[in-house]
Amino acid sequence: MLPDSLRPKYDTIQRKFRRVTSMHLTGYDRKDNPSLPFKTKGKQVTETPELKGITKEDIHADLFIAELIKRYEAAKGKIVLTEYDFQTGLLEKYKLSRQEKEQYNSFFMLQELRNEYVSELYRTYRHPKVAIVYGAGHFWFLYAKIRDMGFEEVKKKI
Fold first, then answer.
1. How far apart (Å, rounded) are the C-alpha atoms in residues 121 and 88?
2. Is the Cβ–Cβ distance between 107 and 28 less than 8 Å?
């Protein structure tokens, strides 16, 4: 739970994320989440560290939403929210015009910034064994970055 003093700031961060990506980052496991730009069957499971097998010794190799917004704005400029952004609840259907969508770059936010961060960590982390848990939709973008760093794929039969 966030302290009351941080709630308005976090609410704005969530709305900035939604402004760029057109979705609210929550509720994949709900059939009735109209904020998502795609339909779910409600069969997804909310990812938790426990379900992924992540422990306190592991490194979180993704950007938290506040850092993602900070890096996005540093690279692309301030994300400007409108009255519509504040009038639309986070779990409500959110629709932008084509022109509004073209103003921002969701691929840059969702793929490029995050992949750059993971590859940055990978370059600097010194450990003989590294496992990266990554969503299938993101894999090939990261795979190319790691390959370009000189790493090779080793296929093993289990």
1. 36
2. no
Q: DSSP class of residue 38?
A: S
The 10s digit of each residue's pLDDT in 50-106 is 777 778 888 778 888 999 999 999 999 999 999 999 999 988 888 888 888 888 998
Contact (Cβ atoms closer than 8 angstroms) between residue 28 and residue 12: no
User: Which residue type sits at 137?
Assistant: G
How far apart are the C-alpha atoms of 27 and 46, rounded to whole Å?
Answer: 7
Instruction: List the one residue out of 50, 43, 49, 13 whose CA is nearest residue 28.
Output: 43
Q: How far is CA 33 from CA 55, 78, 87, 143, in A?
A: 30, 28, 17, 31
- Residues 34 and 40 sit within 8 Å (Cβ to Cβ): no
